Amino acid sequence: MSGSVSHRERTALTHIVLIAAAAIVIVPVAWTIAAGFRTQISLLMGEFFFKPVWFNFAEVLFSKTSDFLLNYRNSIIVGVTSTALCLVVATLAAWSLHRMRWPGWVVHIFLAWALIFHMIPPVALASAWYTMARSVGLDNTFTALILAHTTLNLPMALWMMSVFVRDVPRELEEAAAIDGATTPVLLRHVILPIIAPGLAATAVLTFVFSWNEFAVALTLSMKQTATVPVAIAKFAQDFEIQYTQMAASAALSILPALLLLLIAQRYIVKGLTQGAVK
User: Fold this and answer.
1) How crowded is residue 153: how many other Cβ atoms within 10 Å of its Cβ?
2) pTM for the structure as a whole
3) Total structural domains in the chain?
4) pLDDT, tens digit, for every residue of 6-18?
5) Which of 94, 117, 138, 262 is deepest in the core (most CB within 10 A)?
6) pLDDT digits (tens, 9 = 90+) for 225-274
């Protein structure tokens, strides 16, 4: 009986810890979304009950002084393009590292350098990238921002794709090679279908990191190419902080990543656990 009670207590404690962890994540997001439906006075007065208003969302989306829809488009362009580049380069690099008979020390050094580079704060690279982009005429262009985001997220994508490519059975590749498959055919018809869950997981994480990146986007972009995080920061002005409109913008910025996660959830879970299961 005591053992049964102890088990129930452990289960209850586990549930309490999980609920607390979920609350830590969910409550700030819920508060931000709710703040988007409040007036500035209601928010600053700390009213618990309030009458929802749509003014903030209308102001953010349709005001003549707002460029939020343009910023939204910019973030989608940068996020989708940099994610696609990361997937292509990371997949080819991972296949090269694990299938082209590089010496073991080359693979280890390459992956270690990628990890070290990933730990460098983006803001430490922003000024150098701005100088480089300006010197070649790429300042205030999507090209510079896309290349910067690709560089920032490529190490993570490389590490993830290395796991999935490494776990592909070599027997399948050898059988395809015996049947006369060239390298492009092998990659397209053998490797890619097997690592599709890994591609989905890597794509979602890369897109989310690109979508949320602020420091480099602030440095390399101007009004025409500014992304959503830069646009949200502009609601904090010198003499006024537009809290409710900032909250409405933040709530809208969640939608692409949330939609992507819902669509690819099954593949993400499978991709993130595939290496561990094997």
Assistant:
1) 25
2) 0.85
3) 1
4) 778 888 889 999 9
5) 94
6) 999 999 998 888 767 788 899 999 999 999 988 888 787 777 666 655 65
Do 204 and 266 meet the contact criterion of CB atoms below 8 Å apart?
no
First to last CA, the chain: 38
Does the CA dihedral 112-118-119-123 come out positive or negative?
positive
In a domain, residue 140? The reply is yes
Q: In the numeric block, which tokens belong to residue 204?
A: 């979602």
Q: Could you tell me how many residues make up the chain?
A: 278
Instruction: For residue 122, give its domain range.
Output: 65-277
Distant-in-sequence, close-in-space partners of 202: CB < 8 Å, separation ≥ 6: 86, 87, 90, 156, 157, 160, 161, 271
Does residue 71 fall inside a structural domain? yes
Q: CATH code at 145?
A: 1.10.3720.10
Closest to 141 in 3D by CA, of 212, 211, 66, 74: 74
Alpha-helix residue ranges (DSSP H) falling in 36-66: 40-45, 55-62
* 89 touches 146 (CB < 8 A): no
Q: Is residue 213 part of a domain?
A: yes
Phi/psi of residue 241, nearest 5 degrees = -115, 115
Concatenate the DSSP letters of all residues of 95-131 into one string.
HHHHHS---HHHHHHHHHHHHHHHTS-HHHHHHHHHH
- The encoded tokens of residue 44 equal 């600053």
Inside any domain, residue 4: no
